[in-house]
Amino acid sequence: MRDILGYQGTPCVVVGAATGMGEACARTLSEMGAEVTALDIAPITAPVKESVEVDLADPASIEAAVGKLPAEVPKLFVCAGVPGPPRFDNLATMTVNFVGVRHAIEKILPRVPRGGAVALISSIAGVGYAKNLDKWKELMAISDFGESRAWCEANPDPANGYLGSKQALNVYTQLRASELVEREIRLNALLPCPTDTQMLPDFHAQAGGKENLEQFFHSPMGRNATPEEMAEPLILLNSDAASFVSGHLLIVDHGYCGEVNVGIRQGLL
Predict the structure, then answer these.
(1) Which domains does the chain have, with CATH numbers?
(2) At what angle do helices 227-237 and 20-31 cross, to 10 degrees?
(3) For 29-56, what is the mean pLDDT?
(4) CA 202, CA 24: separation in Å to the nearest integer?
(5) Helix (H, G, I), strand (E, B) or coil at 182
(6) I need a labelling partner for 202 at 20 to 30 A (CA). Which of 20, 152, 194, 217 fits?
(7) What percent of the chain has pLDDT over 90?
């Protein structure tokens, strides 16, 4: 039988592998025979080949962690992120979820060979990015970590925390994918709906209660996704089976956004 996914024996790096979708991604890749190096600020329990500590709020920490990675990273998964208030203010959320995530990707990209692939986790919370596209293009033009963070601080309306960080990731994915074509490196993003991870109670708090989040953002299935139901499509995006897929925002919500698009339910994002 032909292995159309192509992970057996393949070096993979998973950033944000301690919990939730990232943990499910690292664990599943290991079960598939990949050689997984896992990064996070928290302890990693998945059965990976190597674990490396990293703080995405600190560029020096990112660069030190990258120095410990394999010389060649054919498959890079970036699953890290924070939920925003009340635990993280808007600037801290933008710093980790976009500035830090982008910095990590850009520092690892020189290790990604021709034909390699990068997949990151964004969110359906960022589907409204077109409303702020001109502003996001300003941010995309800034490559320095500190200057990017300063831009977020100076532009609090678009850079408004979790939603803003995910809008920015969606724009980055599509713009950067176009630039990486000449290196034959693919870049895609997974856009999950509410998922049963450790961050879900924070989203309940932001929505004014569990019932509000479920009323307005539950999938048509009437339940949240599991971490595995997000990790597996993410793995598919970076697989050999998706070799002609790049610059794509893969919405995984069991039809929620589809219902919004055709007017079955109200679009709030």
Answers:
(1) 11-261 (3.40.50.720)
(2) 60
(3) 97
(4) 20
(5) helix
(6) 152
(7) 83
